[in-house]
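Ticket closed. Logging final result for 4-hydroxybenzoate 3-monooxygenase.
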Amino acid sequence: MRTQVAIIGAGPAGLLLGQLLYKAGIDAIILERHTGDYVLGRIRAGILEQVSIDLMDEVGVGQRMHKEGLIHGGFDMLFKGQRHRIDMNELTGGKHVMVYGQTELTRDLMEARQAAGLTTIYEAGNVTVHDYDSAKPRVRYEKDGLNGKEVHEIECDFIAGCDGFHGVCRASVPHSAIREYEKVYPFGWLGVLSETPPVHHELIYANSPRGFALCSQRSHTRSRYYLQVPLTDKVQDWSDEAFWQELRLRLDPEARAHLVTGPSIEKSIAPLRSFVTEPMRFGRMFLAGDAAHIVPPTGAKGLNLAATDVKYLSSAFIEYYREKSEAGIAHYSERCLRRVWRAERFSWWFTGLMHRFPENGEIGQKLQEAELDYLINSEAGSRSVAENYVGLPLNFGE
Ligand code: FAD
Ligand code: DHB
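Final structure:
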């Protein structure tokens, strides 16, 4: 088999890249180790920045998103038992974000890919990448045959590593060619999805002495809530009742009174990590999305960064095939990393501001509250939060 771009991973990064390339007439095959249903079953991100909304429109799959997505022009920060609204719209000259689940975005992209008759190989086993330092990279995988182990090979011009944090592409690069920066936080997020109306029409980010809480949503009838929990906690330790009880204790009296509880549809614990790989290009192999970087989820940046990486990557490939220029390819890593580090900085800072760090003691809590008090009362402070949350422009600083 031969293709122009072999994409590893059918998460948001791989699927969006596939669609951007298809629109530009560039041939690509996606290899995914799981089934499509498994990929759709992972409940993850919920907030799209304008750049991600624009990309969905650019590839022609934005109809359902505009119909069902909820526009949010602000969010609440809760501390010392009181809520304060950050008016993103007002503070950024009219910008907003959209509540639209990663599951929905993934479904829209998968359906468009299927409708266009494009090749996605699901349940591709033992994917390996070869010769990406040469002009003729190859990808091998196992599928079909005896025990699903027949080996297939794809020849390609480029490999796009969109295979997430635990993927094979980054892991295939020799240690001497890569630098990794990492911070692991001493807590995780316990998330619950429930068929209940959201406690508030916008998101609430709560700093409480008992730990961080986030009230999010997927629709007017479906809520997504998160609690900061010790890394040692297991999902089984948390009954639905215990979850709702702890959430109540981290909210203000009004939200507590409005909280509608119900059975959880999904419950999981995600560890928090800041992680960046430098560079993001190795010869003819490129990393994009979680394969190259992880942000702690507090700033809602992970999915949005994956989207901008593949926007830059598709532009580079388009330039290569249409104009025979390698300029975009040469600048890909540097261009992405500048945006990545900005989002890493915001996500790290927002995580530090909102979570309980027991090792910082009571003074840590007091200092966070003083900073929050400053931020909500200073226009400059509030604007800084707002402009980072809605996402800095693609050409910021250029
Ligand atoms: P993934 O979604 O991880 O996709 C990678 C794909 O590659 C997977 O389908 C995987 O099965 C496949 N794969 C892996 N290895 C191989 C292999 N060897 N061979 C073939 N296929 C392989 N981001 C936001 O922007 N906003 C939010 O509000 C937000 N909230 C979040 C909340 C939680 C609880 C979590 C966990 C994450 C959140 N994120 C958020 C982050 C966001 O979900 C990720 O950044 C996003 O999924 C990255 O997409 P991706 O395509 O790069 O990687
Ligand atoms: C959601 C997740 C986030 O990390 C965040 O900052 C906001 C919302 C969510 O899953 O809805």
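The CA atoms of residues 74 and 87 lie 5 Å apart. No further action required.
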